[in-house]
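Why run this: before we spend reagent on co-expression, it is cheaper to look at a predicted model of the complex and decide which construct boundaries make sense. The entries below are exactly what would go into the expression plan.
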Amino acid sequence: MGGKRIGRLVLAATAAWGLAASAARAGEITFWTWRQEDKAAYTELFNDFTKANPDIHVKFEAFAPENYATIVSAALAGGRGGDVLHVRAYGGLEQFAKAGYLMPLDPQTVPELANLPDDAKAAETLRADGKVYAVSFASQTLGLLINKDVFAKAGVQPPETWDQLLSVSRTLKDKGIIPIANGTATAWMDEVFTGIFTGPFLGTAFVQDILAGRATFEDPRYVAALGRLLELRDFLPPGYTGIDYATGQQLFLSGRAAMFAGGSFEIANFRKQNPKLALDFIAPPAPKAGEPRYVSKFYDGGYAVNAKAANKADATRLVRWMGTKEYGDKFSALLGNISPIKGVVIQDPLLAQVAKLNDVSMPYIMAVHFRYESPTGSELLQGAVQRMLAGNLTPQQVGAEVTQGIARYYVPFQKK
Amino acid sequence: MTAARRRAVWIAFLLAPALVVMTLFVAWPLLAAFRYAFYGFNGLAAAQFVGLQNFREVLTEAPFAAWTWRAFQHNVIVFTVLMVAQNGLAYLIAFALLKTLPGHRVHQVIVFLPVVLSAVIVGFLWKLFLHPLFGLVNQALLLVGIHGPPWLGDESTALGSIIFTNAWHWMGFPALIFLAGMQRISRETLEAARIDGATDRVLMTRIIWPLVAPSTTIVVILTFIGSFNWFELPYVMAGLSGSPGGATDVLGLYFYRTAFGNVSSGLQDFGHGSALAVLMFVFIAVVSALALRVLRRREIEA
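The model came back. Tokens follow.
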């Protein structure tokens, strides 16, 4: 079994070598990514780059997302791999950077780093040496996707407070509409669901307390916020424990459900699947009227230079260009993502609205701060919330399980 | 060159390609996994030798130990239920087919048909059948007024549903092995038993059962290895996390997500992942070797 899987890894690495070898032509650099579906957009972007830098051609090479890290790490371990790499953020970035596979970027060689906000740089920084290893490409915002037609037909307004969420959901349900499309069967979506609805109850103050070691996830604020999630169980699809991510999306897209708790990354995808969808994206409801409605925010990943790239100078030029406003503008327009580069103008009204929501945002706690070591806060929370929403754990138990798991490596939790 | 020497060269020439492929793609990765299990990792690069630390952590330290133990228990359940339900039923089907009743050839094909489908297809198919809203199973139950549970979403039914799917998929295989074993028993033996007044029940338990011991050996060993390497079906039907809440987590899933990382939740951790892989490998190798000895002895006694 283990041998078989490692065998596949070796196969993948061999394939990777083959690709890298075939691409090693002068003036040509390769870009490795897991985003096969973005090929057309990247081809257009790279054409722009070549227009400005006629001596460099960029080759786009994509790998399956679920195997991407394995393939890239195998190739990098062998001193190969793309010259410029799509990398993830936070713990996912650290795994590559810590191993010495990526070239550190500094303001001298990549002055464009100044175009990025601090939290975008932090997402691509190795904590051990404080150096930035990649240029962030997009921020993601978690909130509520709204089907405006369904709301209009039911004669209700999108909720702004928790009480409104409950009453609107009640009305929708009475009219035979599923209020919230999410199920709990896909584990990572449970973390998304938790992040969205607990966010406004916790706020940035709670995150600061966690990071300063003043609070754990057993804190009454956190337990109470988790308890709020239980109130939503009535408004999820029937048999929600068996509803997976794909089904939730379909329920929302087909208009059988009115809301979908998800990320801004759904917008482009939803529009593609149903161009007629009257889509809106709003912040989660506030605990009480007038209180801030925090959205959770995180960075997807970045563009890094392979530490062993044959042509680091050209690779660096590409990464520098990927940190410019010109790139960010076009990237956002083509891919429906929000580029974090300062001064980027987002044409699409809905995306511009999401970008505006980021003004009142908090970090997506587990992904941003506790996905560096195992067991990750994400895996602990996902499994525990899944059980809580099924009625098999209490919010207190979830808080304790998550805190104890993280305490393995997070010193402030060990004392408590 | 002598004839013997030419023969030796010829054999070496024929063996070499297979040997190279086996070494490169089987032996070397296996040894690499063994080596990784004893290393601490710096991100994705093996850093320092840590002895048995990875093993100690996955076996004794929270929360890994609890996850290892939970997954192992699930594998034991899978093996036990498959042995009784899947293979027991397969034995009965084989016996029915042996009786060459009218239409037995068609039935033989039908029984074996799902085996040729890929586990991924079967997994997706049954995931759809068991879907709480659109699934065939719950729609059918609704016709008789029963609200079926979300089979794959309920902690009490999820593992059972996947085991059932496995049995549906694989039943034909042990049935075929048992049938082949039964067909090797001489007609005279069976007819003599019949003349002495043996019923089907006696025939099945006293006469055929001991005589198909070699088939049983194969079925037990393959079911054992399959159950403890179980991966495709739970992966397709429950996902890498063993949803819901780890109710379907088995060693295969746990090892895979530890070593290769679960996108959107985990990290790649080759050290602990390799330690788990080594533990699985050793456990399966040792237990199947012991079981093989016991079962072979039983064949001779029979």
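The radius of gyration of chain B is 24 Å. The longest strand of chain B covers residues 45-49. Bring this page to Monday's planning discussion.
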